[in-house]
Amino acid sequence: MKKYLAEKVGKTLRSLSYEGSVKLVFEKPKDEAHGDLTTNVAMLLAKTAKKNPRVVAQDIVSKLDLDPQFVSKVDIAGPGFINFRFTDEFYTAQISMILKNPETYGKTDTGAGQKTQVEYVSANPTGPLSVGHGRQAAVGDTIANLLAWSGYDVTREYYYNNAGRQMRMLAESTYARYRQLFNQDFPFPEDGYQGDYIREIAENLKKERRDTLAGLPQEEALSVCKEFAEAELFEAIKKVLARMGVVHDVFFNEDSLYSSGKIKEVIEELRVKGLVYDSEGAVWLKTTVMGLDQDRVIVKSTGEPTYRLPDIAYHREKFKRGFDLIVDVFGADHIATIPDVLAGVKALGYDPEKVKVVIHQFVTLMRDGEQVKMSKRLANFVTLDELIDEVGSDAVRFFFLMRSTSSHLEFDLNLAKEQSEKNPVYYLQYAHARIASILRFAEGQGTFDAKVSLDKIEYNLLKGPAEISLVKLLLEFPETVELCASAFEPHRLTTYLHDVATAFHKFYHEHRVVIPEIELAKARLSLCLAAKTVLANGCKILGISAPERM
RNA sequence: GCACCCGUAGCUCAAUUGGAUAGAGCGGCAGCCUACGGAGCUGUAGGUUGGGGGUUCGACUCCCUCCGGGUGCACCA
User: Fold this and answer.
1) What ipTM was estimated for this complex?
2) Which domains does chain A possess?
3) Is strand B less than 7 A from the beta carbon of A44?
4) How many Å apart are A415 CA and B26 C1'?
C-alpha cells in the first residue's frame, strides 16, 4: 500500500513540477485517529517553495487520483501532514496472503545475495558462560535470525583463543586442583581460576588418568591438563548455548591465524603500506593516520602480538571470505578495541563501513528486589547454566531481548520465574496457546478446518474496530522484521509481538469466534489463524517456543 | 583527565531514527467470568523527558554546556 501511494503521490508531485527535491516517505502515525499512513512531504516542500505547507498539501491532494476501493479518506491535518485512510476491505482481504504461506510470512528478500557473518559469544574456554554471555548469545542469535528472515545469507560464528596466558592459567589451575586430590597441600596459583568448576574438571581428569599425571614432567602434565580442561569447558559451553537454541556454524580458532601465517602476512602488508614502524623494540600501528588519538602496539618487544593484531587479521579473513556485511556482537567491555580493529581493517584497504558493531551493555540480576552480587574472582557469579535452570530458556532469551542493547538490563529473577500474567513471556505464549485452543475447539465442532481451502472466506465480514486493528498490526509484521534486522535491534520485535498479543486478546474479548453464523465464524477463525502465524513466526525469530497448550 | 553508553511515570523500560496530545508492563485505585483458556479484558491516577542554552515549521531524538550513574582508556584479552 505504501508502494501504491508512493506511485500516485509521486506522479502528482511531478505534475505539479515539484521535482525530486525531497524524499517521499509514508509513515504510520502514532495516533490511529490520524489515519493509516501519513506523509510530511508538503512540509518539506514548503520550505523551498516558500509557501504555507497546508497550501502545498492542498495542491497535492486536489490533484490526487486514488481508487476509492483502496483509499477511503485523504485529509490534511496539523501543520501540513497528508493523512490517508484505507478501506477495511483493503486490509482484511490481505489475511489470505498471510495464510497462503504461513511459515514464510514475514520473510523478505531485502538482503538477498548478501553474504553476512554474525559473530557472537566468542568466549575463551576458560570457564563457564556468564549471564553477560547469555545476553550476547540471545542478541547475536536473534540478529542472525532477523537477517536470515530478511533474506541475508547468514553465517553464525564463534571466535575463540585457546592459547596464551589465560589458557596457561587454566592449565595450572586444573593441575593444582588435580594434585590437591592427592595432596591437599599442593599450592594453588595466585591468579588461578577459583571457581568450583575447576575442581570438577580435576575430578573428571582423575577418573580418566587416575594419579598418572603426578609422575609426568610438569610441562607435559600441564599440556594434558590444558587439553582436558579446554575440551570439557567447550563441551559445557556448547551445551549451554544449545539449551538456548544457539548453534554456531563456524568455530574460528585464533591459533589458526598463526599456524597459517596470516599474522605475518598482515604485518608485512601493513609494512609495505608504510603503516607500521618499530620503536622501543615493539611494532606499532600508525592508528593516528586513521584519525585515532595515539599509535598502538601490535607486536610487543617480547615478539608476542597484542590482541589487536589477531583481531585485525581475523577481520581481514572475514573480508577475504567474501562477507558483504560483518556483524560483531560484543560486550560493553570491548568498546575500546573496536576503533583499533576498524583502523586496521581500513589500513588493509577494506571498507570498515561493512562492519557493524553491536555493543550490548551489562546485565544486573535482581532477586527479591536486591541486586545479586557477582564477582568472577570470588567465583560467586551466577552462570548462564544456573540461570536457565532457574527460570527456563524461554524466559532467559526473552528477557535478554526485551531491552535495547545499548541499555543496561535488569533481570528480575522473581518476575522471570513467575508463571502468571505479570510475566511478559507468558503473555505472548498465552495468546498463542489460546488461539490454538480456539482452533482445536472449532475443529472439534466441525466449524473450521485449517487445512481446507481458505479461498472462499468472506473477509469483508470483519468490521469491528478490534478486528480491523488486529489485521492492520498483523500486516506490519514483515516490515517490522525488516526494520529490526536493518537496525540490529531485536527488542523492537518483542514490543511488536506484545502489541499483537494485546490486540488479539482485545479482539477475543469483544468477539466470540465460534458462532452459528458460519461465514463470520470462518472469517474470524482465519483471523485467529493469521494472528497465530505471526506470533509463532515471531517467537521463532526470538528463539522461544510457541506452545499449543500451557 | 579523555572516549563510549545511559538518565523518560513510584519501579523496569518503549517511543516508527526529526513528526501531531511522550507510551507499555509492574505496583496503586475502581470494575468485568451462564458460551471458544481470567496466564485475559476495561477504566483511573501518575511527566517541566536530569538542568540550561542552541539548530527549525516541529526536539526525548541533532549540536554545545553542566550535573549524576555505568564502562573502558597496557608492550592484558
Assistant:
1) 0.95
2) 2-86 (3.30.1360.70), 115-158+247-360 (3.40.50.620), 164-243 (no CATH), 421-542 (1.10.730.10)
3) yes
4) 9
